[in-house]
Amino acid sequence: MAQKHLAFLVMGPHYNPEEHKATFVTSKRNTILCGVRDFDEACEMVKDLVQNKDVGAIELCGAFGPEKCKKLIELTDNQIPIGYVTHFSEQDDLFDAFFGK
Description:
- This protein has helices spanning 39-52, 65-75, 92-99; strands at 5-11, 21-24, 31-36, 55-60, 82-84.
- By secondary structure, the protein is α/β, with parallel strands linked by helices.
- A 5-stranded mixed β-sheet has the order 2-3-1-4-5, with helices on one face.
């Protein structure tokens, strides 16, 4: 049985899903990197990745946060692992400065 692939989604208004995507192909597992503009695009992307791209796990950038991550888990009927990137609270100022909060 072939290995399922890993997807990583980044979200921001500057991403265009048609343009901002890449696939890292290896002998063990492919990693698919996808950019989406907003949560609605993310939902459509997740559906496509699971149904058509043989993705078995998804990681999300920190912009999704816990609530949106949980909604995507529900969207997939909790059939694949989905996580999101986080950071230590002592670096909040650095993240806020970089991401412009």
